[in-house]
Amino acid sequence: MPRKTSSQPRPAEPKAVLHPRNRHSGRYDFPKLIAACPEMGEYVILNPYGKQSIDFANPDAVRVFNRALLRQFYGIQHWDIPAGYLCPPVPGRADYLHGLADLLAADNGGVIPRGAAVRVLDIGTGANCIYPLIGHREYGWRFTGSDIDATALASARTIVAANGLDKAIELRRQDAPKQVFKGILAAEDRFELTLCNPPFHASQAEAASGSQRKWRNLGKLDPSRKLPKLNFGGQAAELWCEGGEAAFVARMADESVAFARQVYWFSTLVSKGGNVAPLMARLQRLGARQVQALDMAQGQKKSRFVAWTFLDAAEQAGWRAERWPRT
């Protein structure tokens, strides 16, 4: 049952435009979420429109909400993250994975390759391990997650072990913070996909400023209430790096050349629309055979990912014949 009513006005909820296979279209069934995750009941409120929701300004509420979503929709029974670490929105993360599945299907007669033969590398998997959890449950893919943060990796390992997913999800430490693929991919590795949610701020101050703008846009700035700096949390490496998103994805593109024959499709989210064209131009200069920018939308928020491959048509056909399950 609802616990309290929010006193803060909220904008009308926009209709989410999610991938057709995304499990999170439409309004959430809060009784079912609470049944799956009873502690969720502590955080349900009534918004100004009389609809059940949660207080997205409360980091604990967001964390438990994610736990409930993962439990109800993906059968992930055990999920938690350390205080202060990034708590990502599950629907948007699922959309990226579905978009990548479509990318593979486009090369496979419209059929999505499924199962453990499909390997995916998650750059910066984080304490939440969200992409491997959803991607494995949806498509049976086998994941390798990398991160530079020891605490994040320890959290991800706990999640993987608690859900009996050790054979499906492997985790690797990146010891060189400015490297992306180097030090992670071994010579024998082959990945159908790489994915990444890069840090997109250039400094801690910029990240904090972005959070304040978000509160203003949502109408949540209230002088009488002390709001968290980031309701979705996030450590430094998750939120910002030198040069911001543009520098990170440029470095990723440059490094990908050395692993051109070990990956079918490289990809990365690009949060800032202005970074797309420079990245695509850079990839073309680096010799990528195909570069695609694919849009995603969740409500009023627009996002996209850029994917590229160095394999020509014959090499792609050989890869599929050798590695992908027959359908």
Automatic annotation (TrEMBL):
Xref: Pfam families: Methyltransf_10
Superkingdom per UniProt: Bacteria
Reaction it catalyzes: adenosine(1618) in 23S rRNA + S-adenosyl-L-methionine = N(6)-methyladenosine(1618) in 23S rRNA + S-adenosyl-L-homocysteine + H(+)
EC number: 2.1.1.181
Principal location: cytoplasm
Transmembrane regions listed in the UniProt entry: none
Subcellular location: Cytoplasm
Gene Ontology MF terms: 23S rRNA (adenine(1618)-N(6))-methyltransferase activity
Keywords: Cytoplasm, Methyltransferase, rRNA processing, S-adenosyl-L-methionine, Transferase
Keyword S-adenosyl-L-methionine: yes
Keyword Mitochondrion: no
Chain intervals for the UniProt region annotation (Disordered): 1-24
Enzyme class: transferase
Stated family: Belongs to the methyltransferase superfamily. METTL16/RlmF family.
Role: Specifically methylates the adenine in position 1618 of 23S rRNA.
Protein name: Ribosomal RNA large subunit methyltransferase F
Species this protein is from: Stutzerimonas frequens
